[in-house]
Amino acid sequence: MTRDRSILELAAWLQTAPGRYVLGWEQDRLDQEVADAFGFHAVQLGLPQLDGLRANRMPHRWLATDALALTLTPALPSALPSALPPALAPAQPQQAADAVRCGAPVNLHCHFDALPFPSASVDLVVLPHSLELARDPHQTLREVERVLVPEGRVLIAGFNPASLWGLRQRGGRFVRSLGLARRHVPYLPRTGEFIGYWRLRDWLRLLGFEVEAGRFGCWRPPVSSASWLERWAWVDRIGEHWWPVLGAVYFVVAVKRVRGMRLVGLARAERRKAAAAPAVATQRSAGALPAEIERRGP
Fold first, then answer.
1. How confident is the model at residue 267 (pLDDT cuts 50, 70, 90)?
2. For the chain, how many helices (H) and strands (E)?
3. What is the model's pTM?
4. Which strand ranges, in their side-by-side order, compose the sheet holding 148-159?
């Protein structure tokens, strides 16, 4: 399966009951994390079905989509057009101005491994399943590191291969490889390679990121029916405490650390604190000599 087709298949899968379940959990996590992220520029790479920056208050926000996905839009099957919102249409100058006035992100089409931003110019980058669909996930992460300012944040969401959903996906591939079920439909979209949680942490550490938070979610069994997903809702209440690392998806918050950086705000606070320290004053009679001179003598 080509990469472009994988993007469209993921878009269609997100319209299913499990897809809406995953989107709901990821949207809630993103809303909580981006609400307290401050700066001037924020970018979301991919997955326009998820508004990862809607709770953020930065003045300049972009929703970047890969232009390659647009080439297949006219040839989509009848079941797929609803999965791709009108936001995929190229943004015109007037539309971009209207989006800025109403607080919505401006649409941008680019390759994720060659971002059109200067180095150290972006304060926040959101990657919802973007690395799984990227042509080169390593280069995409390197580009994110390049464009982020020191102490900038990156938020990453991905499928957890070490989960019940991941096991079912791999089991289906194994069955198809044996030719026992040629018509077997995989539970998850056949996207690119799923990146494990600990593997992703290693990638981030090598690029100088510090993982600030990591969390798993969506512990319900891999069923396709909305009614059965609702019946298993109680699993989410105990999954986080009893088997947290078996969640179907994970969410990572990492901060770009730069060696030798000095926080100006803390430095000023320390100077103010030192200047405000009380001075000790001594009082002596007009004719008295300092003790040091008296000891030395004439």
1. very low
2. 11, 7
3. 0.73
4. 106-109, 60-65, 41-45, 122-128, 148-159, 249-256, 209-217
